[in-house]
Amino acid sequence: MMSFFKKHKMELGLGVVVVLAVWAYFVYFGGSSAPLTASSEADSVSSDLLVTLNSLHTIKLDDKLFSNADFISLTDFGVSIPQQASGRRNPFAPVGQGNLSTTTQSQ
Q: Which domain holds residue 34?
């Protein structure tokens, strides 16, 4: 029995590859109409999104909003991040061996 496998190693390997290829074909391309349904649902969602995006282009903001006292009274609570050195001269050097570079991060 073992001599059979030794003699026909190439044919058995080719057979396994063919069986796997046929199985893969049926798994990915065979049988079900579910991908068509999913595709039509995706097309519907895509078209709804495009309609919504086109309606957003028609929105115009006038100066009344920005000159309103309520808008002007708003306070910015943002935090300024100071510039710091970033990166290393040699990013491929082992950790702890590359000095920080002299470049700074811009805002």
A: 10-56
Six-digit token string for 107: 């805002």
d(Cα 75, Cα 79) in Å, to the nearest integer?
Answer: 12
Q: Name the nearest CA neighbour of 55 among 67, 47, 44, 63.
A: 47
Q: Look up the pTM and report it.
A: 0.28
The position carrying tokens 């969602």 is 45
3 state DSSP class of 85 = strand
Distance between CA 60 and CA 72 in Å, rounded? 20
Kindly state whether residue 22 falls inside one of the protein's structural domains.
Answer: yes
Q: What is the pLDDT of residue 101?
A: 52
- 50 in a structural domain: yes
Closest among 80, 77, 79, 97 to 88, alpha carbons compared: 97
| pLDDT at residue 9, rounded to an integer | 82
With a cut of 50, which residues of the chain have pLDDT below it? 36, 104, 107
